[in-house]
Specification:
Helix content: 55-70%
Shape: elongated
Distance between the termini: 96 Å
Length: 95
C-alpha cells in the first residue's frame, strides 16, 4: 500500500478562500481585475462568490460599465486633443 503525502496547506487555504469569499473581498477582486490578471485561485473565488451573490453581480456589471465609459472617454479625449504644432503657444509666436 502506497502512502499519499498530506495535502498542502496552501491548497486547503485556497479552497477555503473560494468557499468563504466575502462581498468586500469580491469588490476588491473585481476592481483589481481591471488593473492586473487575477491569480487562478482569485478568479475561482470570485466566480464562486458571484454565482451566489446577486448584489456583487450587479456591482461587477456597474464596474464594467464604468470601465468601458472611462476607456471611451480616454480614447475620445486623446484623439480630440489638438496638436501643438497646429496651434503655437503665445511664447513661440514671432512678432
Amino acid at each position: 500500500m502506497q502512502d499519499h503525502p498530506p495535502p498542502k496547506i496552501s491548497l486547503l487555504a485556497g479552497v477555503w478562500k473560494i468557499l468563504t469569499l466575502k462581498c468586500d473581498e469580491s469588490t476588491g477582486l473585481v476592481s483589481d481585475g481591471f488593473e492586473r490578471d487575477l491569480r487562478p485561485m482569485e478568479r475561482w473565488a470570485l466566480r464562486m462568490h458571484l454565482i451566489s451573490c446577486r448584489p456583487c453581480r450587479r456591482m461587477r456589471a456597474q464596474f464594467n460599465l464604468l470601465h468601458q465609459a472611462a476607456s471611451k472617454l480616454a480614447k475620445s479625449t486623446h484623439t480630440d486633443t489638438p496638436n501643438n504644432d497646429d496651434h503655437p503657444s503665445p511664447d513661440n509666436q514671432t512678432p
